[in-house]
Write a structure and sequence with these properties.
This is Phage integrase. The protein contains 7 helices and 7 strands. The protein is of the alpha+beta class. The model has no long low-confidence stretch (mean pLDDT 88).
Length: 187
């Protein structure tokens, strides 16, 4: 998640049917799982196709060996009108490593995977959505991509959310702005 920026609810509902091109790392985030229920994304803008950065692409390719060939699970997905429900056969990308079942909620992911792995790694607790925040902050700090691209990649309707929630500048990670200005101004 740290190299892709999805919401936790989107990551746990990602299915192999959403992987457009595994080699190129193109995935479609089109549903989320909230309180044990699957629903299409809250807004049309949240439903998006993204091209993964190399570390995320490689992790997805490794995960394919573990879960891509599992049998689909038929789940009920609520449409955006909050009334229409459709049954969808899905092969989920991420599974509980103990039970081999798809994660049934973000709480179960937190208790069964996230906390134990942070503890084993000696990392103080932080919520899994920190991965999303870190992804956005790192993209912003590089200055390499426009705000609009970041908003689109993360499923936001505008750049305002990016500025408001993720706009922390990380000096040590950023480019040499003085050097860039001196070069641009021919100083």
């Amino acid at each position: 998640m740290i190299w892709a920026g999805p919401r936790v609810s989107e990551a746990i509902s990602l299915a192999w049917e959403d992987v457009v091109d595994l080699d190129k790392g193109i995935v479609r985030f089109q549903r989320s799982q909230v309180r044990g229920h699957y629903k299409v994304t809250k807004t049309r803008r949240s439903a998006r196709e993204v091209k993964l950065l190399k570390p995320a692409r490689e992790a997805l390719q490794a995960q394919a060996k573990l879960t891509r060939d599992l049998k689909p699970v038929v789940v009920e997905v609520t449409e955006r009108d909050n009334k229409t429900k459709r049954m969808r056969p899905l092969r989920f990308v991420f599974h509980n490593s103990s039970t081999h079942a798809a994660h049934t909620s973000s709480d179960m992911l937190l208790k069964g995977f996230w906390r134990p792995h942070l503890k084993a790694a000696g990392v103080r607790f932080r919520g899994p959505n920190n991965c999303r925040h870190t992804f956005a902050s790192q993209l912003l700090t590089t200055g390499a991509v426009p705000l609009e691209w970041i908003a689109d990649q993360m499923g936001h309707t505008s750049t305002d959310m990016i500025r408001k929630h993720y706009g922390k500048w990380i000096n040590d990670d950023g480019p040499d702005m003085v050097g860039i200005l001196e070069h641009a101004l021919k100083l």
